Give the backbone structure.
Amino acid sequence: MITMYLKIHENPSGKIVAVCDKELIGQVLEDETRYLDLDKYRNFYMGEHVEEDAVKKALENFGSANVVGERGVRIAIEMGIVEESSVMNINDVPYVQIYRV
């Protein structure tokens, strides 16, 4: 069963990993302080349809990562890449941006 989208963007400053739970693509997430348009920016996240193992492999080596949704964020927490206290929620959807310096 395909559960997430994974897209890796290569640029001169490093690799950007974008992960989004499949069912969130096309939605607009908004609350009092945050806004994330997963319809307008669907191409940023929509790469391969993947399972957990592919996301884990991608999150082993990156410069920055944008992870949206319960499944993707849970993986990042389990891998120790991000602390649970750093996760933002937009309309109860977890979202995290991770930067390695």
Q: What stands out?
A: Residues 56 and 75 are 7 Å apart (CA to CA). Strands lie at 4-11, 14-21, 28-30, 35-37, 48-50, 64-68, 88-90, 93-99. The chain has three helices and eight strands. The helical segments are 42-45, 52-58, 70-78.
